[in-house]
Amino acid sequence: MGKAGERECRTTGRRSPGREHPAVWSAYGKLVRLFRERAGLTQQALADAIGYSLEQVASVEQGRRPAKAAFTEAAERVLGAGGALRVLQEDVDRAKLPLFFQDFALLESEAVSRFSYDPMLVPGLLQIEEYAQALLEAHFPPLDDETIEQRVAARLARQALLTRKSPPMVFVFVVEESAIRRVVGSPEVMLRQLNHLLKCSTMRNVALQVMPTDRGAHSGLNGAMVLLESVDRRQYVYVEAQDIVSVRSDRHEVSEFWMRHGMLRTQALNTEESSRLIERIAGEL
């Protein structure tokens, strides 16, 4: 990201009226059409072969909607695309994200460590589908159904980072107790969400710590933060509030955030205590 990593980004996550769909969706669609025509198949024949509707195949070819991973794998198999579609899937998924988040998502995808503090909500990388759906349905101004579907899919696709093998990625999540007590969706959804947190906390590359409400004032109360370290050991900080974001790489600025996060870890419950608190909150639902 270079110098761009030091600038303050102020684009919102809402789609502007008349905005074109992402160019990568169009490029992907053109490749699908090329391979389909080379295979001598009609759109209907391809749809039948991969288990999708004619409308879905046409929409993907025209770049009006993004292909999901299952579509890509089926098309690769039927069309013999040799990996040409598969290699674009990550970019197709990233383009589903809000504009203000896409640059950071690229940095995140290349990082080897990610430390965060979340005061309001369960972190996106740890959200279950129903939790993410409920959050996006509460967005205002309201989002249309297609945008909600795309953003939920993109959020879930990002979670592949948790199990990435090469290079493996280390995660430290510090989450406020109020964030895990807030019932998003329904008590049933929240119970599944808390159980998912407990499952994720058992992963060797994931540390989940809860900041108890009775801790009182601490340095995290200024707001959420995400800290990244790249393969070449460059460090970044991402701060977001109401769809206004800032990504910084200045070492003096970033160093202060890393120290702040380190202090938060000492003030939060340790991982074992955090799991017990989550279990207790789940038992209250």
UniProtKB/TrEMBL annotation:
Entry superkingdom: Bacteria
GO molecular function, one term: DNA binding
Pfam families named in the record: DUF5753, HTH_31
Region Disordered, residue ranges: 1-21
Organism: Streptomyces leeuwenhoekii
Protein name stated in the entry: DNA-binding protein
Record PROSITE patterns: HTH_CROC1
Database matches in InterPro entries: Cro/C1-type_HTH, DUF5753, Lambda_DNA-bd_dom_sf
Gene3D superfamilies for the chain: lambda repressor-like DNA-binding domains
Keywords carried by this UniProt record: DNA-binding
